[in-house]
Design brief:
about 280 residues; alpha/beta; TIM Barrel; eight-stranded parallel β-sheet; two-stranded antiparallel sheet; 10 helices; globular; oxidoreductase activity, acting on the CH-OH group of donors, NAD or NADP as acceptor; NADP
């Protein structure tokens, strides 16, 4: 279990990925994202997660440059959007993301959604980018077990990461077990259910007991469950608060209380019905 913000999990190819990072979904390009990225890095974050479709890669890149931390100390993730799925189009999309970010490599590149039928070609492109050394690790996002099984029939490389919606109302138990078996690191997007969980009574009670915020309790539950997590915020005090989770441990009993809140309820689309 991580004991500080710089602690990492080791992916199955030996690459070290921070357990906690900053997500920038729905963060405006320009000052808003530049300042969020700078605030995170200034306060010890090493991992920043963006995507082509967020339309803020330029700002993320600027924030990284202005933060002044050596590139090799950071872990930068982006994702290929559905319109760019396919072999050649993915290679071009990757180059465009790198250019917008102003970087010469990525630490992690993900297929953003399974979409309908092109993810195997897209994966071949990711395998090439990986073999060419342009990205340190490759993975998927929003893949159900059946998508992963289908992908693995033809894949040379097992995805290192599967980033999915994950929070106390969507505990993804079967998927977690499957990914553990396949040595695929699960990563949570929307860990706070886009804020909906912040007034959940059970979580409020647990938060009082540990003298922490509900957000901190959820993030700690993620980490103790072995799930990498990337809470999004644009406010510096909140970015700092989200990372202030290393001075306590949730008891087994409290972990179970949070596990029991699961109702397989999504705040985002179901990957099976989200074909664009």
């Amino acid at each position: 279990m991580p004991t500080n913000l710089q602690d990492t999990t080791t992916l199955h190819n030996g690459v070290k990925m921070p357990w906690l990072g900053l997500g920038v979904f729905k963060v405006q390009d320009g000052d808003e994202v530049v300042n969020a990225v700078k605030a995170a890095i200034k306060n010890g974050y090493k991992s920043i997660d963006t995507a082509a479709v967020y339309k803020n890669e330029e700002g993320v890149g600027q924030g990284i440059r202005e933060a002044g931390v050596p590139r090799e100390e950071l872990f930068i993730t982006s994702k290929v959007w559905n319109d760019d799925q396919g072999y050649e189009t993915t290679l071009a999309a990757f180059d465009a993301s790198l250019e917008r970010l102003g970087l010469d490599y990525l630490d992690l590149y993900l297929i953003h959604w399974p979409g309908s039928n092109k993810y195997k070609e897209t994966w071949k492109a990711l395998e090439k980018l990986y073999k060419d050394g342009k990205v340190k690790a490759i993975g998927v996002s929003n893949f159900h077990i059946h998508h992963l099984e289908d992908l693995l029939e033809d894949a040379e490389i097992v995805p290192m990461v599967n980033q999915v919606e994950f929070h106390p109302h969507l505990a993804q138990l079967e998927l977690r077990e499957y990914c553990t078996r396949k040595n695929i690191q699960l990563e949570a997007w929307s860990p706070l259910k886009q804020g909906e969980l912040l007034s959940e009574p059970t979580l409020e009670k647990i938060a009082q007991k540990y003298n922490k915020s509900v957000a901190q309790i959820i993030i700690k539950w993620d980490l103790q469950s072995g799930v990498v997590t990337i809470p999004k915020s644009i406010k510096e005090h909140r970015i700092v608060e989200n990372a202030d989770v290393f001075d306590f441990e949730l008891s087994e009993e409290d972990m179970k209380k949070i596990d029991d809140l699961n109702k397989d309820e999504r705040v985002g689309p179901d990957p099976d019905n989200f074909l664009f």
